[in-house]
Specification:
The chain has helices spanning 45-49, 63-68, 86-95, 127-137, 147-151, 154-160, 174-177, 179-188, 202-208, 235-246, 315-335, 369-375, 380-389, 427-431, 467-480, 494-498, and strands at residues 2-4, 77-83, 101-108, 118-119, 141-144, 165-166, 196-199, 216-220, 229-232, 258-262, 267-276, 280-282, 287-288, 291-293, 297-300, 305-308, 341-351, 354-361, 403-410, 423-424, 436-440, 443-446, 449-452, 456-464. By secondary structure, it is of the alpha+beta class. The structure holds adenosine-5'-triphosphate.
Length: 499
């Protein structure tokens, strides 16, 4: 067992000053003690050693420079997007707006994506299936949507073949695929995060629990599709949950190791940056709604809605997050031999002790990507190519001052068991509303009609001059769309309206 708690007497690093205006975000933020675990300067050598793999073979000579050259601007590019949810629909939608993209493929895509891209079958759980697809299509750029192909090493495999791919390598994707790795990395690099303990047995959990106050967060180490985090109200419940994870009853092999964490209080923030392995460029921030029911009640989901506004954080806070969280992560990964390229999603809690990292995702968030990309006015392809080839510092993102909202419509029973195959009506009427775009997450099309084909079905996204107007448009569109058992939260962004 390894554990880390605040040791205020140790470590030379005072946490960086949180900008004054940042304290307006959520609970009153103070600049003191922004880091707790970050004060332990122990470096865990075994994790550094696991990065000592040889460098990947470089792409064919001249390819990189060609992509970076002005010639790029006369290319007609074929882009392949891997994935088939709402995030991928919004990526397809945005990439199609690039004057340099002539064709977009999506694998496997879904019913709605098929209206805007050529959908091709693939088994995203099988790396050979993805490689065969790459061999067949030979895309000029592949964009990896979900985490699983990244952790299977799709970027490594494509890079070996000289196929430009947007996303981190398997080693870099450990920031998401192993929560214990991420926690130890944060500790090594003194980046603020919650106190934690890493346990491999129920016995270790029992002894670690004495260092925590309830409620206690228990996390499965591996990927668990949003089901691997439980906030336990008491040590007894924490022990029971940890035991169920460790014995494989709750989330299978992902729970063979667990991380206990102090429960942080504050507002959550999704802060995404694009990295070229050296530097980062921030996207506009967003806020997600994880719980299934209004008022943040019920179990966690993949995300029931998100919004982005120009004032969700101010420029000072954005710069603080870049300089004290995102940039140190990218520098730390490079120093450990696992250069991080692609999107780095920092899931943050804005606490009274300052912003703290809850989790990393090594890809775009879903549903945050939908409202974020709806505010992007420049070419997403520029940033993706700069991430692959270097030079992200030269990318000039242009953002709309509008506000955007995404409301997820889900199948009855989601996030538990749900049934598919329900006919969806009203999509055309919803699309007619000014500023509305309906992204498909789990749909299929048969005989000219759309049917539900997943837990999260649609991401009804709207843009307007301010947040109330964007909400009004999004909910008006939701009201027009019908399918049996449909449910959605009615309080997306309501807390932001009150701020
Ligand atoms: P999975 O691995 O199952 O996909 P995940 O990656 O979504 O889960 P996290 O983002 O770490 O897991 O946690 C999910 C949610 O749990 C967070 O969005 C947050 O609401 C809550 N959470 C996680 N850690 C903490 C914490 N230390 N304190 C308070 N809430 C937390």
């Amino acid at each position: 067992m390894e554990w880390c708690k605040a040791r205020s007497a140790r470590g030379p690093l005072a946490p960086p000053e949180v900008p004054r205006d940042a304290r307006d975000f959520g609970a009153a933020l103070t600049p003191r003690n922004a880091s707790s675990c970050a004060q332990d300067d122990t470096i865990h050598q075994e994790h550094i050693e696991s990065f000592q793999e040889g460098p990947l073979p470089t792409p064919p000579h001249g390819f990189d420079s060609l992509l970076n050259s002005p010639l790029t601007f006369i290319f007609s590019m074929k882009v392949l997007v891997l994935g088939g949810g709402g995030r991928e629909h919004s990526l397809v939608w945005k990439l199609r707006q690039s004057s340099r993209v002539s064709q977009v493929y999506c694998a496997p895509g879904n019913g709605g994506i098929a209206e805007e891209a050529e959908c091709v079958p693939v088994d995203l759980k099988n790396i050979d299936s993805i490689i065969s697809l790459g061999e067949h299509l030979r895309p000029d750029l592949t964009v990896v949507g979900p985490e699983l192909p990244l952790t299977l090493g799709v970027v490594d495999e494509f890079a070996r073949r000289g196929w430009p791919t947007f996303g981190p390598t398997r080693a870099a994707a450990r920031l998401e695929s192993s929560k214990s790795f991420a926690k130890e990395f944060l500790q090594r690099h003194r980046i603020p995060t919650a106190h934690y303990a890493i346990c491999d047995s129920t016995q270790e959990v029992r002894s670690a629990l004495s260092h925590f106050h309830a409620p206690i967060v228990i996390k499965a180490d591996g990927l668990a599709a949003g089901k691997g985090v439980v906030i336990a109200a008491s040590p007894e419940e924490a022990l029971q949950v940890a035991d169920e994870m460790l014995t494989g009853k709750m989330v299978g092999a992902a729970g063979a190791r667990v991380v206990l964490e102090e429960c942080l209080k504050g507002d959550e923030l999704s802060f995404l940056v694009v990295s070229d392995g050296e530097r980062v460029a921030p996207l506009v921030a967003a806020q997600d709604h994880k719980r299934v029911f209004d008022g943040d009640q019920g179990p966690n989901t993949g995300g029931m809605g998100a919004y982005s506004t120009p004032n969700i954080i101010d420029d000072q806070m954005r710069d603080w997050l870049v300089h004290h969280i995102a940039q140190p992560v990218v520098a730390g990964m490079k120093a450990e031999g696992a250069e991080y390229r692609g999107v780095l999603y920092c899931g943050l809690m804005m606490t009274a002790r300052g912003p703290m990292v809850l989790e990393f995702n090594c890809r775009f968030g879903d549903p945050e990507t939908q409202p974020i990309l709806m505010r992007l006015e420049s070419d997403l392809l520029d940033a993706m190519q700069a991430s692959v080839n270097g030079g992200i510092g030269g990318v000039d993102f242009k953002w709309s001052p509008d506000s955007t909202v995404c409301v997820v419509m889900a199948s009855q029973g989601y996030p538990g068991a749900f049934e598919s195959g329900r006919k969806i009506t009203g999509l055309d009427e919803a699309a007619e509303i000014d500023g509305v775009k309906v992204f498909h997450a789990g749909t299929t099309k048969r005989d000219g009609s759309f049917y539900t084909a997943g837990g999260r079905v649609l991401g009804v996204t709207a843009r307007a001059g301010d947040l109330p107007a964007a909400l009004q448009r999004a909910y008006e569109a939701c009201g027009k769309i019908k399918f049996e058992g449909a449910h959605y939260r009615k309080d997306i962004a309501v807390r932001a309206l009150r701020r």
